[in-house]
Amino acid sequence: MSFLDDIIDVGKSAIGGVISGAKGMFGGSNNILGGLISTALTGFALYKVNQSVSATNNTAATASPPAIDPGNKIAIKPDTQQKIPVIYGTAYVPGIITDAVASNGNQTMTYVITICEKTGVLLSDGTNSQFSFENVYIDGNRMIFQGDGITVNYVVSPDGQVDNNPLGLIKVYCYAGGSSSFGTITGYAANTVLAYNLVPGWDNTYTMNDLIFAVVQVTYNKDKGVTGLPNMSFSVKNSMTLPGDCLHDYMIAERYGAGIGSEEIYSE
Question: Residue ranges per domain, the chain?
Fold first, then answer.
């Protein structure tokens, strides 16, 4: 059994090849920002397919969908309302799935989850804003990691209940500004891993410049209930917290803000 076997009886559904055929759709650093929104939306649609597994399986017994080569790609209309947020201070966000690739005989799924934009310089002291990952959650339960700071050891619910089923089956790699800007989760230490070395089909042109994101690898295990990407959320902290810093940053930012020229803003 694998992710695809568990999701849909491959060869009997038009959706069967979506994830196995999904490849990274970004280009290099020259078009990453311009093309990210559309690719993020397509990735989000893949996530919706994954969430609708139960409904699809329930109708499979009464319907006879056309067969399809499980290696084919299927284009899904993007959700034009999906946007990458800007975070100041601390926020809890689910992120946007921008890529999903199956590997290891469909036993492993690698997801790229874009969380937010990287912000600029603090007006108050002239330093660059810094992002950190405070915690990571699945289905509202906090992940506790092993000594490598990447591999899940267990998860704990808000009332203290421990679930060991994800042990060793989920890995989370965090990035604070691009594929080369490896970041650790607060309280852990981890060896640097370049994002494009993790995602099958990526190379060093997949830069993810000026984005806060995570690469999540999930290993299939039906007995443990790990058959897809759980609902994830990230507690992310931006060092830019002062109201004046935040307002000024958003006013002058051309990538995600108002793009007002600095000469038009009076500040002391």
Answer: 81-264
